Amino acid sequence: MIERQIIQHFTDDDLYKLSMCCAVIDNFPRAQVKYQFVDRDNTVYPEGFAEEVQHQIELLENVFITDEEVNFMRSRCYYIPGWFYRYLRGFRYNRKWVRVWQDEERHLHIEFEGNWSDTILLEVKVLAIVSELYYEITGQTDKLDYEECYRKSYEKAERLLEAGCVYSDFGTRRRASFQAEETVVRAMRDCQNSRQWPGRFVGTSNVYLAMKYNLTPVGTMAHEFVCAIAGMYGPQMANHMAMDAWRHTFRGALGTFLYDSFGWDIFSMNFSEDFANLFKGLRIDSGDNHEQLMKIAAKYEQLGIDPRSKQVIFSNALDTDRAIAIQRYAVDYCQPSFGIGTHFTNDFEGIKPRNIVIKLVAVKITESWTFYNDTCKLSEDKGKHTGKPDVIERFKKAVNFPE
User: Fold this and answer.
1) Sign of the alpha-carbon dihedral angle for 67, 250, 93, 258
2) Distance of alpha carbon 252 from alpha carbon 198, whole angstroms
3) CA–CA distance, 139 with 136 (Å, rounded to integer)
4) For the chain, which terminal residue's Cβ has fewer other Cβ atoms within 10 angstroms, N or C?
């Protein structure tokens, strides 16, 4: 058993999990959910790996938010209401929300179940635990050369900044280790501060590292917010309800909407002029980046809005080369920015990044319901829909999803 605790800080997490938690309590305080872990590579994990993950989850029970973390978030996350910090001060993880096991082929299974406002704060931490544990237990940590990581990260920053890219680190969930992400953030900050650049390193999604290196914590929301609403009320109006709920909680702040939970077409029908003016921009996380950008620009123009006044965040499996290529054409249509994850925090010679996710798969509006509704996500990337096959087909018919 590895006694070292992998997650040692409450805010060693992505900002969007905290912002979504706040919006969930504000809009859906009694909602109950189920999540499932998916390893897209169908990895065979070492014997006893599930027990190691379970142990790390148990250790989360002694992780709580500190005054330093609260004070930092108050100073940088002005849009989060004060009552939410009182909630976070009393928040404690509970191992009872989680089941972890391996099957006969040693594939890993993880499930969460409970209040949405509780279990929402498990996803990123558990993915980071699985990723880091895997390299440790399989004896690959000696391949993690942090001096080389700093050098490579600095060079990536130089290229992105010189190309005029506005970008941030989104790499907590599939990082090789906490030290890997910290090394990346430090290198990016050092490069940004070395001279004036055409581009800008905005910050990191990791709230703790933003605090440690005096950066801006970056992030808004994830697909799960829209997908859960679709499970409760149906997918046709899920984007509308999600935007309305987000407006209710954050009053126009955190104004980037992740639109692709059920494809562009149904979102576009819900993206009325008031929402287009309210939200600062949209985030592209699937599909062909150029094709999606053209749809976004055309929609804004249809609504009488100059798309060049709007931000578009690109975050679909980006690396340095792809971000620079997108920057060259996107700057003529919008204010582009980039969220880059695994390419930053798990780029080591001889190391294969984990292709793992945790998805919200079922939801009910209140604990008094005797059944859950299944949910799913329809991706603009063909073959990457997530959910039960019959649920995917039902949702595709409901929103007339193009084949």
Assistant:
1) negative
2) 28
3) 5
4) C
For 347-382, the pLDDT digits (tens) are 999 999 999 999 999 999 999 999 999 999 998 887
Residue 239 CA to its chain's centroid (Å): 18
List phi, psi (to 5°) of 206: -80, 110
Whose CA is closest to 347, among 153, 189, 134?
153
Which amino acid does the sequence have at 175? R
Question: Around Cβ 277, how many Cβ atoms within 10 Å?
Answer: 13
Asked whether residue 139 carries a pLDDT value surpassing 80, the answer given is: yes
Write phi, then psi, for 9 (nearest 5 degrees): -130, 140
Q: What is the mean pLDDT of the chain?
A: 97
Cα separation, 385 vs 395, whole angstroms: 11
Helix, strand, coil % over all residues of the chain, rounded to 5: 45, 15, 35
Whose tokens are 């009872």? That residue is 96
E runs forming strands in 64-136: 98-102, 108-115
**Token output for 74:** 């108050």
**Percent of the residues in the chain that have a pLDDT greater than 70, as a whole number:** 100
- The CA-based angle 271-169-141, given to 5 degrees, is 135
300 falls in which pLDDT band (50, 70, 90)? very high
CA distance 358 to 254: 23
Is residue 12 within 8 A of residue 208, CB to CB? The reply is yes
Q: Is 29 exposed, middle or buried (0-12, 13-18, 19+ CB in 10 A)?
A: exposed
CB neighbourhood size of 325 (10 A): 14
Task: Indicate the DSSP class of residue 62.
Answer: G
Query: What residues contact residue 142 under an 8 Å CB cut-off, 6+ apart?
Result: none
